[in-house]
Amino acid sequence: MWMSSRAANVPGSVFALMDAAKSRARARGRAIIDLSIGSSDQAPPEAVLEALREATRDPLTYRYPLFSDTAPLREAAADYLRRRFGVGVNPETEVLPLIGAQEGLAHLLLAVTDPGDTLLLPDPGYPPYLGAAAVAGLRTVPLPLRPERGFLPDLDAVPGDVQPRALLLNYPNNPTSAVADAAFFAQVVEWCQARGTLLIHDHPYAELTCDDYRAPSALEAGLDGVVELHSLSKTHHMGGFRVGFAAGDAGAIAALARVKGAVDFHAYLGIQRAATLALGLPDEVGRAGAAVFQARRDALVPALRALGWEVQWPQASMYAWARVPGLTDSVAFAVRAAEDCGVVVSPGRAFGERGEGFVRFALVQPPEVLVEAARRLAGIGVGETVRNAP
Ligand SMILES: Cc1ncc(COP(=O)(O)O)c(C=O)c1O
């Protein structure tokens, strides 16, 4: 009775189904290996935790933070963008702290679109994208991400009569772990500018890169008509702290600040101080965290390939995206993997129609546990029965 149509339009999540399967597996006494949630299992750098502890002892942090109080974090974000990507932004007008990239996206859509506007978004894609679009009352047009194109969208295939107000992308990508180079973003920005479309680039995995790969920023292609969402959740293992920032087009940032002004008072100042310190840490700190995921990738991907599953070698993010030959119902498959093998993964279907046939592994356990997960899955068929499950 009290549900608005915008609330009713937020899609349900298959993760509730997976949670129930996990409980049933536990009730059967199975030891669970949970690889379903992309939340870092590493701790934030000690200096970041210390900055937060210290802030809690400072009474100045107990009051409502105002925009002017966010200056140190905005300046740290601007310094980070310059140091890391060679991108210059004005910390007064082109940067805004967020309570996480997810919060930022939902409010950005409310800030820059009107109900009925069209949003182009990736399929497969991070599930809350659809919820944020529903809350903003948008018409969504999925952009298929196909393995044969390296999971990059084909913008030339977007029908001419689609007039998108905004295009949402995310590289390094969740769930496919695909990456995009600077030339790709330059083309996308050109495409958007020709149509008066805002490019929103969701960039939480900017620092979770492997080997010598370094992810570019979409802002390298220009700030006009581009907003990028950064997060400390993955890059600094601060998911629970809820902090990130938006940077880019001054008009879109001003609109976002207006909407957020009606909704929140910014993050707690202690969190802002911790994030300010985190963004200024030497690159090696971030590299050390990324190396942990790289070692896990090196263990899991060959083990999955040995099962005959198709996995592109991830250069970034914290996921392995595996196509299971013959699989047509990834949700049923993931439920059986949980109940019969005790291995909890995310069904590809949870990320969109184009995710069907795939499963996503979050690299949130040590290498030997990941190899054990693959071993347990060795007997699972794509049909109704599980063979040789432990
Ligand atoms: C693509 C993507 N965007 C946003 C988020 C959430 O980021 P935050 O914790 O900053 O809200 C996630 C978390 O998994 C993600 O994968």
What's this, in brief?
With 390 residues, the protein is an alpha/beta fold. It has helices at 5-8, 15-27, 46-56, 71-85, 101-112, 128-135, 182-195, 232-235, 250-263, 269-279, 283-306, 330-341, 367-377; strands at residues 33-34, 95-98, 118-123, 139-144, 164-169, 198-202, 226-231, 244-248, 310-311, 319-323, 343-344, 346-347, 358-362.
- CATH H-level superfamily of the largest domain: Type I PLP-dependent aspartate aminotransferase-like (Major domain)
Strand line-up of the largest beta sheet? 2-8-7-6-5-3-4
Domain module tally: 2
CATH architecture title of the largest domain: 3-Layer(aba) Sandwich
How would you explain this protein's 3D organization?
This protein has 390 residues and is α/β, with parallel strands linked by helices. Strands 2-8-7-6-5-3-4 form a 7-stranded mixed beta sheet, with helices on both faces. It folds into 2 domains: 5-43 and 284-377, Alpha-Beta Complex (Aspartate Aminotransferase, domain 1); 46-283, Aspartate Aminotransferase, domain 2 (3-Layer(aba) Sandwich), CATH 3.40.640. 39% of the residues lie in helices and 14% in strands. It binds pyridoxal-5'-phosphate. InterPro entries: Aminotransferase_I/II_large (IPR004839), LL-DAP_aminotransferase (IPR050881), PyrdxlP-dep_Trfase (IPR015424), PyrdxlP-dep_Trfase_major (IPR015421), PyrdxlP-dep_Trfase_small (IPR015422).
Give the topology, please:
Blueprint: H1 5-8, H2 15-27, E1 33-34, H3 46-56, H4 71-85, E2 95-98, H5 101-112, E3 118-123, H6 128-135, E4 139-144, E5 164-169, H7 182-195, E6 198-202, E7 226-231, H8 232-235, E8 244-248, H9 250-263, H10 269-279, H11 283-306, E9 310-311, E10 319-323, H12 330-341, E11 343-344, E12 346-347, E13 358-362, H13 367-377
Parallel strand pairs: 1-11, 3-4, 3-5, 5-6, 6-7
Antiparallel strand pairs: 2-8, 7-8, 9-10, 10-13, 12-13
Helix pairs in contact: 2-12, 3-10, 4-10, 5-6, 5-9, 11-13
The protein binds pyridoxal-5'-phosphate (PLP).
